[in-house]
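2024-03-11 09:14:02 DEBUG pipeline.ingest accepted 1 chain
2024-03-11 09:14:02 DEBUG pipeline.ingest length=83
2024-03-11 09:14:03 DEBUG pipeline.predict start
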Amino acid sequence: MKFTAEINIMPQKEILDPQGKAVKLGLHNLGIDNVADVRIGKHITMELEAESEAAAQAMVETACSKLLANMIMEDYSFALKAH
C-alpha cells in the first residue's frame, strides 16, 4: 500500500524561538498587533510504501524520532493518508 505522511515538527514550548519572535516583530511593524505568539517549525511530506497502516506508522515514527526531529528541542506530529 502507498501512504503519504504529513509531518509537522515544532520547537517545544519551553524552547525560545528567535525566528518566531522576528516574525512577530515584523507583523507588528506591518500594523498587525493582535498576534500573541508566533512559532516557526517544519512541515514535511513523505510518500512511502508499507504492508499496512501500522507498518507505515512505525516507519514514520522511526524517521521522526531518529532523523527528522531533534527530540531534545522539538516535538512532532503526523497524519497518514492511504492511496
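2024-03-11 09:14:41 DEBUG pipeline.report The longest strand covers residues 2-11.
2024-03-11 09:14:41 DEBUG pipeline.predict end
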